[in-house]
Amino acid sequence: MRIATLAGRTVLLTPTGAVDVHEAGRGRFGPDPSAVYSDWQAFVEWAASAALPAGRPFAPASLGAPVTEPGQVFAIGLNYRAHAAEGGLDLPVEPPVFTKFRTSITGPNGDLALPTATVDWEAELVVVIGRETRHVAAADAWDHVAGLTLGQDYSERTRQLVPPAPQFSLGKSFPGFSPIGPAVVTPDEFADPDDLEIGCAVNGEQVQKTRTSDLIFPIPVLIERLSAVLPLQPGDLIFTGTPSGVGVARNPQRFLTAGDEVLTWAEGIGELRQRCVPGTPYAPAP
């Protein structure tokens, strides 16, 4: 099952097009994209048994963020060995966790406004939680996942790394810095949801590519570690970390500039596309 947002409404993407969930369910589920995650089990049961109408044609570029109002957004740092190595850092013994504030979330296609000359790319697989999750063992974690989507953890490196105390969450939360989509894909759609190709290209040049089987802390372990501390709620997002190939670790360093086009992809999920444009200038306080 592929769940998306079209014109602000929840749709299922089928071989014939987009099916409006509110209309097909005769009002059982609201049109708001957050509605299905708050009643996930009922939604899955309905979708499995419903005789869906033929879908309507749609333009892929018109899709919005498939999750618009997550209660919590978790982001994991240093979760690929090669990414830790390119930064000259030891492998973590616990998942490093920060957040991306939800006002930075946007859809899979559109402009990315650059507030500075030090904005970087970070392709990431994103987990969407499907039911309340507290003290859940890794062996049971996939039962709590609604699906997987694709994300970019765009990062303004100057703000992120300002001394003496880095500001990861602020540096990664400018408007538009958290595009996700194009759809949330349920785990049953994948041969192995723990082993997907993910990558990123800038102006057609591949800058990142790996498989999620290389994660230091796989998705079930992330859910186990996070839920041991606090409850995860339906619709929450977990950005699982980026592979090697980020601009800040290159020699010389490379950052995004106006006119650049960023393509991000994940096997079985789809693509994100952003075109970089000038943004409102930002300068950290001295």
UniProtKB/TrEMBL annotation:
Entries under InterPro entries matching the protein: FAH (IPR051121), Fumarylacetoacetase-like_C (IPR011234), Fumarylacetoacetase_C_sf (IPR036663)
One Pfam family it belongs to: FAA_hydrolase
GO molecular function ontology, one term from the record: hydrolase activity
Domain Fumarylacetoacetase-like C-terminal per the UniProt entry, residue ranges: 73-275
KW Membrane (keyword) present: no
Signal peptide bounds: none
Protein keywords: Hydrolase, Metal-binding
Family as reported in the entry's similarity comment: Belongs to the FAH family.
Protein name listed in UniProt: Fumarylacetoacetate hydrolase family protein
Protein source organism: Pseudonocardia nematodicida
